[in-house]
Amino acid sequence: MTRPTRRRLTGPGLSLLALLLGLVGTARADNPDPEKRTKAELERLRLELATAKAALNTTRNELEATRKHLAENKGKLARTEADLKAARKSLAEVSSARDTLRRQLDEEKAHRREDRARLEQASKDLARSQAALVLAGKDVARSQDALTATRKELARAEKSLVAVTGEREGLRKQLGTTRQELARAEQKLTEAAGEREGLRKQLAVTRAGQLAAEAKADELNKGLLAARQSLAEMTRGRDEAVKELAAERERETAAEQKIKLAGGALTDAKATLAATQAQVTELRQALDRSKTRLNDCAIPRPLQGRARFVIEVPTPDAKLYVDGKLFTQGDGKVIREFTTARLQPGKAYTLDLRVDAVRAGRPLRAERQVLFQADTEQRLCLPPVDEPVRAAQD
Hints:
about 400 residues; alpha+beta; Helix Hairpins; Immunoglobulin-like; 3 domains; five-stranded antiparallel sheet; about 70% helix; elongated
């Protein structure tokens, strides 16, 4: 006979029990009718206990789902470990193939170094041409700035000349007016001189009038002297304006000469720019031609134990020989493709390739021995990029 196990209250059940005991104690101490109050509290606590049990059941269900999910994750982890073992085995096979590919990569790097040296030399030539073009542009900019400053100075001189011309016209008008006044004064002086002979007889009577006439004559003489001084100042201003105009014309002539020199420098700079652009165009065309050629490389491919060859030949009518036998598939195309039979995994094989072509009326030949393995794709260019081909020998 087994003893019944007691279940210990934890979590919500223990909290509800403590709350129930506290409410019962409070009801007995404070409520004069404890039985009714206690029954109501017990009924409410039963409802809360039922709710807590439902929440506990939900929690148990979630715990069970979590355990199932954990079991599934353990299964996945086991499968992942198996896949990892297989990947490590494949990695060991790839490492053996990597050593073979490194040797081919070293050869390819040597070719790339030569191409990079040529490209760096071309870049240096282009940089020097661009620097010369920048200097020429700066000279042209300085010439244009000098021309702009000269034009501004010429505009200011023209404004000054217009102002001097206006002042000169005003002085001319003032001189005309002064001359008219001087003529009238001379006429009056003449009349006064004629009258003076007649007035000598009346000297005692007309002495005061004579003194007034002499004073007026003195004033007229002063006005004449002032007009002459104004005329001299106007003449000096005109001479200075003429000198400034001559200086402005000389500066304008010098500016035109600078413009001509700047135009010549700009023409030379444009010629240099055109030559540089032509060189850049040739270099870009050469670079584009180099990019369109296939690069020699070996790419791992899932080919079910076979190897694929993708070979670029120089012309569509070139002849391709594989291990000394003429390969006729893909004739008339620049890209030739073929796949080998099943090979032994991890074993290295060699293949002799030869291309015979005719370029510019001359027979040319390129030969290559390729080292390869199963499940790889060999991309080759015969002859390699920028490698001169030799004439075919019978």
